[in-house]
Amino acid sequence: MSVKYDVMVIGAGVTGAAIARKLSSYNLKTVIVEKECDISFGVSKANSGIIHGGFHHDSSTLKSRLEVKGNLLFDQLKEELHFPFSRCGIVVAAFNNDEMRSVEKLYENGVSNKAIGIELCNHERLLSLEPKLNPDVIGGLYVPGGGIIEPYRFVFSLMESAKKNGCELYTDFKVIRGVQKDDYYEISSDDGRMIKSKWVINAAGLFCDEVSKAFRAEQYEIKARKGEEFLLDRNATAYTSKVVFPAPSEKSKGMLVIPTVEGTTMVGPTADMVDDKEDCSTSKENFLKIFSSARRLVPVVSERDIITSFTGLRPSIEGEDFYISPSEKIPRFIQVAGIQSPGLTASPAIADYVKDLLKKQGLQLIEKSDYDPNIEKVPRFRNSSHEEIDNLIKENPAYGEIICRCESISEAEVIAAIRQGHTTLDGIKFYTRAMMGRCQGGFCTYKIMKIISRETGIPMDEITKRGGSSWLVNKKVGDYPVGTEI
Amino acid sequence: MKKINKEVLVIGGGSAGMAAAAQISEKGHSVVIVERESTMGGILNQCIHNGFGLQRFKEELTGPEYAEKYIDIINKLDIEQYTGTTVTDIEDKGDHKVVYAFSSKNGMLTIRVRAIVLAMGCRERNRGNIGTAGSRPSGIYTAGLAQRLVNIDGLMPGSKCVIVGSGDIGLIMARRMSWVGAKVSAVVEIQPYPAGLTRNIVQCLNDFNIPLYLSHVISKIYGKDRVEAVDITPLKNGMEMTEETFRVECDTLLLSVGLVPDNEVSQKAGVKINKETNGPVVDSRLMTSVDGIFASGNVLHVHDLVDFVSEESQRCGAYVCDYLDNREEESQYTVCSGSNIKYVIPNKFTAGRDNKFYMRSMIVKNHAHLVLTLDGKEIMRKKQTHIQPSEMITYTLKKEDLPLEDLNGESRLEISLVGQGE
User: Fold this and answer.
1) Which of B260, B264, B274 to substitute to test the interface with A, most A CBs within 10 Å?
2) Percent of chain B scored above 70 by pLDDT?
3) Does domain A90-144+223-313 have CATH number 3.30.9.10?
4) Which one of A53, A153, B122, B290 is at 20 to 30 Å from A6 when CA atoms are compared?
5) Where are the domains of chain A?
6) Helix extents (H) in A327-444
7) How far is the C-alpha of B221 from the C-alpha of A335, rounded, in Å?
8) A406 chain-B contacts, CB cut-off 8 A
């Protein structure tokens, strides 16, 4: 890898992907590296998928300014990148006077942040906006500009667009060292690869602190704040028309009821600091906490409808604001750390902000004449009309093979995921939604494994759930002589 | 694009669908079967163990052999079949239904019929449904998926297994995994009694010295990439005895924690679902809440033997023919579950003929009585030498045993299980 790059982005989550896409619109040689085997496998894979309404943080914070700016960019991004997104609106419900006072504070935040259409509601108005709310609600907030999105699909689309415009991606590239040599950094991975880049952007999520250390830049600490969530079936009566927030507490926005953009319902998340940055375990205590909290907001939330639970980790940094700044210790190095909620919402604005920082620091930015912001739309079986599907099958018979019955995902969509470089079960799950429904892959896992193997030539026993040693099958039947000790 | 006109559509080509279709065709009505997999036979195809057909065919068959018998029957009857075809929507147009299905071969199929038999079977409950805490590594499979990988694809899902739940598929897989050289360290069952058939406990666990931990749960799963171990905790009076937790190393966790009727298409068509069975509410003719839509087999309620599925579905086929021929059922009355009964199928009975009921007990008991009361008055009582939730109870209420003179529009038949002398 003797190619020299102008800019390297470290970390292919939503922040890194948004920055990479932005930079791919300029005449620059850009590369993005990711320590996992696929993109969006860290913080971005497990979050609530909310496009926030610009009322949770006061306008003095950087995160608040970028949240509001980012929010406004999503309509155009959807046109260009075809990810599932809906401006369904957000309500915040208060059940007593104390809570109502904290909701009023949110309203003031929203007004000073210029959140569009924000309003305070009494009991009756709030219930008419969201009839599934607990009728004990005394009032609350309505923010029509808030919405929901499929977070990993958004990252995948950003990356597809960046790659289309020349950005290169290296996965399984865990940065362990960055050394300055002349005008370049030599960035090494744990498996011995080395890439040279003039500029470096540290968007490594939970591991920004380690990357910073590896470059001998600033010393700081990223702590993981864990959030557990439960996913409910698409038939669940709990599906609301709007995202429902409780009145917030000091440390988090509280546990919500989220109607996901794909029709399932999510409840959660919790917020607990953990020591292990890879601790994605779930617990029984939080299960009880989440459901009692969710039912206080929306009484019809039921455990009967649980499909699965999962855990996300927020990269929390001292001061809790975004830390986006050129390094003061080393040159041509931009820190983009502490990007937790509302990071997803802010991500397109973060990309603009970082671009401006680079420019201020002296990077010459010349727009590409042939930059194309649009990616090709992959039609979805589930979102197509009968006639559209009939036509799709005529052009590509793989649209007529339903692989995932719960989410109605056709073989054509699985193949599209593989062609975009997603060759693990989780990668395909995030791209297509196959295995994400009520049977959780009980019926389709083996079909998807076969398609991966057929399309890529990867033998069955080398296919993984999400890289590393997450193997799925280890031997063929008959390889173990019966009666031997294993 | 293809248009199909028939009297009946059967959705699902497994044991239920084939038996219903065969009956309908034998009685002279036109029928088409739509099956989403590439072959007929449903889940029987991967059940290569024996024990099927003792009741239905009076011989012991493997799953594929049992399926083959029915495939031969429907082929001889020249029943039209569409495999690799998925039904997405049912439109109820009153006197007829329009069903949309898709396949790579035919594109969109528009199927116009007078009646529909739902025979889509069931799916397995998974980790999310039982809420096991811990990490989320690779190596957690439902027992049915593991069975598919081993029996059809010849692939080993792992070499050191723990099985969660003592449902029949889990027990069968404990034996199967042992046979193919894997080590099965434990079968962990939350209930104080096994969830599977007694014969499977004996033949699949005892014969292989696999320990069965009753009243135990998997309290935590370990492993970042792949399962590395699980914590097993005993239960006492429903409480986890945390201090008695022990850890078992394994690379694979197989879940056999129950089956759920697969009613997504039914619900889209407006069919009402029974919360106890997760299958449709049906009347004495196995007709759902939507006129002309019938249901049988595991989509209606989960059976323990395929023989019962075939029996119920054959009857369902006959009821469909009655419906097509405009033979009205005599008045129908409500059936409900009494003490210790989880559910009774069907949810109505008729005074015009014998009524066959399938039901499940909520308790384990020796020498119990099945008691039928009509509007509070006992009308029948039958000895049951042994009852347990895993073994379905069947009972046929003879027409002559019904006190016709006592029946009125509001009449309710309640079926209960009581101890001897109660």
Assistant:
1) B264
2) 100
3) yes
4) A153
5) 1-86+147-221+318-377, 90-144+223-313, 386-462
6) 343-360, 386-395, 411-419, 425-432
7) 36
8) 264
The last residue of a domain, from among B308, B329, B350? B329
B42 and B103 in a single domain? The answer is yes
Of A287, A445, A482, the CB nearest to B179: A482
Q: Which of A306, A467, A476 lies closest to B156 in CB terms?
A: A476
User: Is B396 in the A-facing interface, judged by CB distances under 8 Å?
Assistant: no
Question: How distant, in Å, are the alpha carbons of A300, B311, B337, B342 from that of B394?
Answer: 35, 12, 14, 13
Specify the pLDDT at position A486: 45
Asked if A464 and B134 come within 8 Å (Cβ–Cβ), the reply is: no
pLDDT digits 0-9 by tens, A355-364: 999 999 999 9
Structure tokens at A155: 């990252």
Structure tokens at A275: 């020591």
Give the pLDDT confidence score for residue A282 in this predicted structure: 83
Q: How crowded is the C-beta side of A399, counted as CA atoms within 13 Å?
A: 22
pLDDT in tens, B169-204: 999 999 999 999 999 999 999 999 998 888 899 999
pLDDT, position A101: 94
Q: What is the DSSP letter of A262?
A: T
Is the pLDDT at B231 greater than 60? The verdict is yes
Strand partners, A476: B155
On whether the CB atoms of residues A431 and A421 are closer than 8 A, the answer is: no
Q: Which residues of A441-451 are buried (b: 16+ CB within 10 A; e: fewer)?
A: bbbbbbbbbeb
| CB-closest option in B84, B131, B157 to A309 | B131
Residues in chain B closer than 8 A to A400 (CB atoms): 84, 102-107
Structure ipTM? 0.94
Which residues of chain A lie closer than 8 angstroms to B124, CB-CB?
Answer: 439, 442
Q: Which of B257, B282, B311 is the last residue of a domain?
A: B257
Half-sphere exposure of A112 (CA within 13 A, CB side): 12
Determine whether A52 is an active site residue.
yes
Provide the shortest C-alpha distance from residue B147 to chain A (in Å): 11
Three-state SS for B113? strand
Any chain A CB within 8 A of the CB of B421?
no
Using the Cβ of B267 and the Cβ atoms of chain A, whether some distance falls under 8 Å is answered with yes
Each residue's pLDDT tens digit, A129-141: 999 999 999 999 9
Cβ within 8 Å, pair B100-A310: no
Q: Is B274 on the interface with A (CB under 8 A)?
A: no
Across the interface, whether the CB atoms of A478 and B142 are under 8 A apart is answered: no
A 154-213 residues inside an 8 A Cβ radius of B: none
Same fold, A1-86+147-221+318-377 and A90-144+223-313: no
The answer on B320 and B224 residing in a single domain is: no
Please name the amino acid found at residue A11: G
Q: Which pair of tokens denotes residue A469? A: 């040693």
Model confidence pLDDT, tens digit, residues B54-111: 999 999 999 999 999 999 999 999 999 999 999 999 999 988 999 999 999 999 999 9
Instruction: Mark yes or no for CB contact A306/B128 under 8 Å.
Output: yes
Mean pLDDT of chain A: 94
Q: Are B132 and B247 contained in the same domain?
A: yes
Total domain count, chain B: 3
Contact yes or no for A307 and B179 at CB 8 A = no
Residue B308: strand, helix, or coil: helix
Cβ-defined contact of A390 to B1 (cutoff 8 Å): yes
pLDDT surpassing 80 at residue B14: yes
Tell me what the pLDDT averaged over chain B comes to. 95
Q: Which residues 274-303 of A have a C-beta within 8 angstroms of B?
A: 278-284, 287, 303
For the domain that residue B204 is a member of, what is the CATH number? 3.50.50.60
Are B265 and B299 in the same domain? yes
pLDDT, residue A481, reads 58
Which residues in chain A have their CB less than 8 angstroms from residue B84's CB? 400-401
Instruction: Please report the pLDDT score of residue A482 as a whole number.
Output: 54
CATH number at residue B381: 2.60.40
- Summarised one tens digit per residue, pLDDT across range A44-99 is 998 899 999 999 998 899 999 999 999 999 999 999 999 999 999 999 999 999 99
CATH architecture of A386-462: Orthogonal Bundle (1.10)
Residue type, A467: G
Rounded average pLDDT over B124-146: 91
- Domain ranges, residue B41: 2-123+260-329
Q: Looking at domain A1-86+147-221+318-377, which CATH architecture does it have?
A: 3-Layer(bba) Sandwich (3.50)
